[in-house]
Amino acid sequence: MIFQVSKGRFTGPFYRCDPRSQLPGYPAHPQRFDVRPSLSMNYLDEGPRDGEVVVMVHGNPSWSYYWRTLVAGLSDKYRCIVPDHIGMGLSDKPDDSRYEYTLQSRVDDLDALLKHLDITGPVTLAVHDWGGMIGFGW
């Protein structure tokens, strides 16, 4: 795959594609959530709603596509929730004037998503790289 990068962030037409037709193995039902006013986060929510919850948090520079095979392997029994951080993957990519790209912002975004999905009980965290700090910070 070809990625375009500008100021350390992935950009370009790749991120405006339909993931179901362009990305092999990517789950067919990505969703969106306005994590902040006028900022939309892409996420996956695959598997049974009454299943144990596995939250997969990617690192830098990555996105939910990183977890596609784990989602495929677990979503028959587990509810797999996999966000794309703002600025990455299929989420919105605001400039620095519209979003603070900090650890606390990432933790707050994950918290907002999980509250939106009414995740209140215990979860299993699967984390990678920077996602470890985000997941454990949450």
> Helices and strands, in N-to-C order?
EEHEEEHEHEH
Strand order of the largest sheet: 3-4-6-5-7
Major β-sheet, in short? 5 strands, mixed
Instruction: State the distance separating the first and last CA atoms.
Output: 32 Å
| Strand residue percentage | 25-35%
State the oligomer: single chain
Question: In which range does the helix fraction lie?
Answer: 10-25%
Specify the number of helices. Answer: 4
- Strands, count: 7
Task: Indicate the structural class.
Answer: alpha/beta
Radius of gyration: 14 Å
Which characteristics define this entry?
globular; alpha/beta; five-stranded mixed β-sheet; two-stranded antiparallel ribbon; 4 helices; 138 residues; 7 strands; disordered N terminus; single chain
